[in-house]
C-alpha cells in the first residue's frame, strides 16, 4: 500500500512467491494500480477446494477485497445467521434471480459478514484462528486483524513511503522498498526470552499486530487506529468478577462440553486430518475427545529420541494403544535433527531460539506425509496451571521471603557450588525415595535456576527471572536499551488476586503467542501443514478464567480440572509421570557434533567485527559449557540462532 505505481503487481507477486509453501494449492494477486493498493495470497485449501475459494476474494457488492489466512470454525453458523439477512448484496444472483452462495469457503462467509455487520462485529462473532487484510474500496481503508490468542502471525510497517504487511517477514523482504535495519532493542529481547515479543520485530519500523486487535489504515495517513476487540486482560478480570459457582463435578462436565464442542468444530475439513500426540495431558485430552467423536481411528503422530530424558514416544504409544488411534511414530537419529539446524533461520524467518523448534518441525514433517491438518494440545499449561513455575514461584517466596537477603545469597552460592550434572546424579540416587511430583527432568538445572532467584525482592521478580535467559541482555547487546514489554510494564498487568493467576495471565500475553504458537505455526506451515489449537477456542479460555485457582492447581499438581476430564477416557496410571519438555539434547550436541559449527559462529573476532555483541560474556559461557561445568545451552542457543540468522541476511 503506497503511492500509485506500475510496479505494484510484480512486487506483490514476488511477496506471494516468497511464502508459497504456506499455501501451495493456489495463489492470486489483486491490485488497484490507480490508488496503489495490492493484496496477494498463497492458499492451502482446507475448506472448499474448488476455485470458488480463490483469494484475493472480492465481495459480491464489489466494495470489499480480502486475503485471509486461517480458519473460521463456526462459519456455517454465521451463514445460517446471514441467511435471514435483508442485505441481498452479500449473495450472488443466479440466472433465475435467486440469491445463493458462490461456494462454501469461510472466506466468502467473512466477506458477507463484514458487508452486514461490519468488521468489529464480524471478528467478535467469529470463532477461529486468522490473520486478515481487508480493503474497503468505498472508504479507502485497509484493515488488518489477528485472532484472539495469536495463532496466526501478521507483520506490518512503513518502509519509506510504502506500507507493507504479510504473514512472514520473507514476504515484506521480497518488496523492493524493504530496508531491513536490525533493531538492537529487539535483539536484547530475544536474548531475554528466546523470542521477540509483539509488537516488536527484528527490524526497525516493522511490527507484529498484537493478538485480539485490528488496525485501520486510511489512505493518505501514516498512523493507523489500533482497536482491541478482545483481550485476555478483560476476560481475566471478568472471570474473576463473575466466577464459576458450580461444584467440581459440574466444572468437569462443563469443561468437557466446551472441549467436545471446540474439538468437534476444529475436526471439520475437506482434507485428511490428524493430531500430534506426545502422551502428555494436553495432547492426550485433545486426541481422546477427537476419538470420542470419530467413527474411525484418529491419525496420531509423535517423534521419539533415544537420548534419556528426551523421549516421550513410549508414553504416546501407550495412550494411542488405549484410545485405538492409527498411530505413527518416528525415532529420530541425532544426525537427522542436527541436519535441520542450518535451515532454522529460513524456517523461522526472524531469530527464534526455542530449541524445541527442532522436534516441532520434525513431527510436523511426519504428520504432513499423511494429513493436511493436525490438531495440537498447546495452551493447556497456560490456561490450567501446568508449568512448574506456577507452584515453584509461590512456594519459593513463601519459604524465602522472610529470610534476609545476605543469607539467601549464601544459600544460592551453596546450591551453585555443585554443577547441575552432579545434582542430577544426587536426584537419581534419591528418586525411589521421592514422591512422583518431585521427580523433575533435569533437576540440577532447576536447582541452579532456584539459586538465581534467591536474592529477589518480590515474587514478580522471581517470575521474570524464571522466564528470562540472559538476565541483563543489554550488557551483551551493544549500544541498546531493552524496550518495555508486558512483563516489565506493570501498567499492563491484570488485577488478579492470586499470583499464580497473574503468572498465567502474563504467559498467555507473552510466552504463548510469542514462543509456543510461533514455533508451531512456522514449523507446520514450512511443510504446508495447517495446525489447529482447540484448547484456545476463546470460549474455553473464558471458562478457564472463571475457575477458582483450586480447580487448576490442586495438591501441588497443575491442570487438575483438565486431568479430571482426561481421566474419563485414559487411565490415570498412564498419565502419572513427571512433566517433560518437548526438547532435544542441545547441551550435549554443543559439546559434540555441533561444536565446530557453534565455534565458528561464536568466534571472538567475528563477534567483534559484526558489532552486535560484547564477545566476553558469550565466550566465557561457551568455555564453561564446553568444560561441562555448567549447562549454558539456553543462553548460547539464543546467540547462535541470531548469528545463524545474520549469516543468512
What does the secondary structure layout of this molecule look like, with pairings?
Elements: H1 8-18, E1 26-32, E2 37-43, E3 57-58, E4 64-72, H2 75-83, E5 92-93, E6 99-100, H3 106-117, H4 119-125, E7 128-136, E8 141-146, E9 155-159, E10 162-166, H5 169-173, H6 184-193, E11 207-208, E12 213-218, E13 225-228, H7 232-241, H8 248-266, E14 273-276, H9 281-292, E15 299-305, H10 313-323, E16 326-332, H11 334-340, H12 344-348, H13 357-368, E17 373-375, H14 380-384, H15 388-400, H16 405-416, H17 420-430, H18 443-453, H19 459-466, H20 499-509, H21 511-525, E18 530-532, H22 538-546, H23 560-567, H24 586-591, H25 595-601, H26 604-610, H27 615-627, H28 633-648
Parallel strand pairs: 14-15, 14-17, 15-16, 17-18
Antiparallel strand pairs: 1-2, 3-4, 4-7, 5-6, 7-8, 8-12, 9-10, 9-11, 12-13
Amino acid at each position: 500500500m503506497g503511492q500509485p505505481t506500475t510496479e505494484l503487481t510484480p512486487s506483490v507477486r514476488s511477496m506471494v512467491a516468497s511464502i508459497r509453501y504456506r499455501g501451495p494449492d493456489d495463489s492470486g494477486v489483486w491490485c488497484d494500480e490507480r490508488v496503489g493498493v495490492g493484496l496477494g495470497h498463497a492458499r492451502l485449501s482446507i475448506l472448499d477446494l474448488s476455485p470458488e475459494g480463490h483469494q484475493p476474494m472480492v465481495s459480491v457488492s464489489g466494495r470489499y477485497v480480502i486475503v485471509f489466512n486461517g480458519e473460521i470454525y463456526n462459519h456455517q453458523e454465521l451463514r445460517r445467521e446471514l441467511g435471514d439477512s435483508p442485505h441481498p448484496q452479500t449473495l450472488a444472483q443466479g440466472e433465475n434471480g435467486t440469491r445463493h452462495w458462490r461456494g462454501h469457503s469461510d472466506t466468502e462467509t467473512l466477506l458477507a459478514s463484514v458487508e452486514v455487520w461490519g468488521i468489529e462485529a464480524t471478528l467478535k462473532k467469529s470463532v477461529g484462528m486468522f490473520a486478515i487484510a481487508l480493503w474497503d474500496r468505498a472508504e479507502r481503508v485497509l484493515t488488518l486483524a489477528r485472532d484472539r490468542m495469536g495463532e496466526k502471525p501478521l507483520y506490518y510497517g512503513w518502509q519509506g513511503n510504502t506500507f507493507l504487511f504479510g504473514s512472514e517477514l520473507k514476504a515484506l523482504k521480497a518488496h523492493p522498498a524493504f530496508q531491513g535495519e536490525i533493531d538492537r532493542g529487539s535483539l536484547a529481547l530475544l536474548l531475554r526470552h528466546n523470542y521477540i515479543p509483539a509488537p516488536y520485530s527484528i527490524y526497525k519500523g516493522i511490527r507484529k499486530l498484537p493478538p485480539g486487535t485490528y488496525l485501520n489504515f486510511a489512505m493518505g495517513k501514516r498512523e493507523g487506529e489500533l482497536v482491541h476487540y478482545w483481550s485476555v486482560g478483560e476476560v481475566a478480570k471478568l472471570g474473576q468478577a463473575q466466577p464459576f459457582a458450580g461444584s467440581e463435578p459440574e466444572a468437569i462436565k462443563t469443561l468437557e462440553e466446551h472441549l467436545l464442542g471446540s474439538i468437534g468444530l476444529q475436526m471439520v475439513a475437506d482434507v485428511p486430518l490428524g493430531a500430534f500426540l506426545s502422551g502428555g495431558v494436553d495432547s492426550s485430552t485433545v486426541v481422546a475427545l477427537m476419538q470420542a467423536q470419530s467413527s474411525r481411528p484418529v491419525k496420531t503422530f509423535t517423534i521419539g529420541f533415544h537420548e534419556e530424558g528426551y523421549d516421550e514416544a513410549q508414553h504416546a504409544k501407550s495412550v494411542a494403544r488405549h484410545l485405538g488411534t492409527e498411530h505413527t511414530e518416528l525415532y529420530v537419529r541425532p544426525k537427522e535433527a542436527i541436519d535441520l539446524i542450518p535451515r532454522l533461520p529460513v524456517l523461522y524467518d526472524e531469530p527464534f531460539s526455542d530449541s524445541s523448534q527442532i522436534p516441532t518441525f520434525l513431527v510436523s514433517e511426519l504428520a504432513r506425509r499423511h494429513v493436511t491438518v493436525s490438531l495440537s494440545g498447546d495452551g493447556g499449561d497456560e490456561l490450567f496451571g501446568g508449568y512448574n513455575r506456577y507452584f515453584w514461584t509461590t512456594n519459593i517466596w513463601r519459604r524465602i521471603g522472610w529470610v534476609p537477603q545476605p543469607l539467601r545469597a549464601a544459600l544460592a552460592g551453596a546450591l551453585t557450588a555443585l554443577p547441575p550434572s552432579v545434582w542430577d546424579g544426587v536426584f537419581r540416587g534419591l528418586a525411589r525415595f521421592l514422591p512422583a511430583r518431585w521427580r523433575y527432568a533435569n533437576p540440577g538445572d532447576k536447582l541452579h535456576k532456584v539459586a538465581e532467584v534467591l536474592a529477589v525482592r518480590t515474587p514478580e521478580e522471581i517470575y521474570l527471572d524464571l522466564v528470562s535467559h540472559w538476565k541483563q541482555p543489554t550488557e551483551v547487546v551493544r549500544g541498546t536499551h531493552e524496550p518495555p514489554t508486558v512483563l516489565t510494564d506493570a501498567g499492563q498487568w491484570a488485577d488478579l488476586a492470586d499470583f499464580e493467576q497473574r503468572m498465567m495471565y502474563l504467559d498467555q500475553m507473552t510466552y504463548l503467542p510469542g514462543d509456543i504458537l510461533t514455533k508451531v505455526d512456522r514449523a507446520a506451515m514450512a511443510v504446508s501443514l495447517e495446525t489447529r489449537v482447540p484448547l484456545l477456542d476463546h470460549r474455553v479460555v473464558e471458562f478457564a478464567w472463571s475457575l477458582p485457582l483450586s480447580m487448576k492447581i490442586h495438591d501441588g499438581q497443575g491442570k487438575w480440572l483438565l486431568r479430571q476430564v482426561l481421566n474419563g477416557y485414559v487411565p490415570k496410571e498412564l498419565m502419572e509421570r513427571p512433566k517433560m519438555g518437548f526438547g532435544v539434547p542441545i547441551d550435549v550436541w554443543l559439546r559434540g557434533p555441533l561444536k565446530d559449527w557453534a565455534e565458528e559462529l561464536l568466534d571472538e573476532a567475528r563477534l567483534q567485527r559484526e558489532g552486535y555483541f560484547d564477545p566476553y560474556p558469550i565466550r566465557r559461557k561457551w568455555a564453561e559449557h564446553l568444560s561441562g561445568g555448567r549447562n549454558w545451552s539456553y543462553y548460547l542457543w539464543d546467540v547462535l540462532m541470531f548469528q545463524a540468522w545474520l549469516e543468512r541476511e
